[in-house]
Write a structure and sequence with these properties.
Blueprint: H1 2-28, E1 37-43, E2 58-67, E3 70-75, H2 81-119, H3 130-133
Antiparallel strand pairs: 1-2, 2-3
Helix pairs in contact: 1-2
Amino acid sequence: MNIDTSRLRLLIRQAEESRQDHVQAILQERGPLRCGSVVRVQRKCGKPTCHCATGDGHHTTYLSCKHDGKTRMVYVPAEVEPKVTEEALRYRRLRQHRARLAKLSAQSLGLIDQLQRALLSSDPVKSLDASTATGGRARPPQGR
């Protein structure tokens, strides 16, 4: 029994240390964050004499995000592309830390439940001694 409970305690400690690392990363985020993903799209303008008619096409940057349950593509001008890209990456990192934190919390609770089951006596009624079986009161002295 000691080996199993020791191992469970170690796993709980490791999960909690990892949780703390993710909490620290979330607390260190100062923003601003931008919900969505930066997407580069190639398209053709339609002019027959343009280089895109026979080549790669024009590269345009968009921010893909959900709005009112629908995916929207918002044009990102070249001068703000680095800023928008960084904000979107920071948002994604924060969401990844949050997801990992949720998994670790569930894992910790599962390990704690396992530890509780391992520590429980198999038959709590039989393991009680005489003084505990009388409701926690000591037996009255004999012969008085």
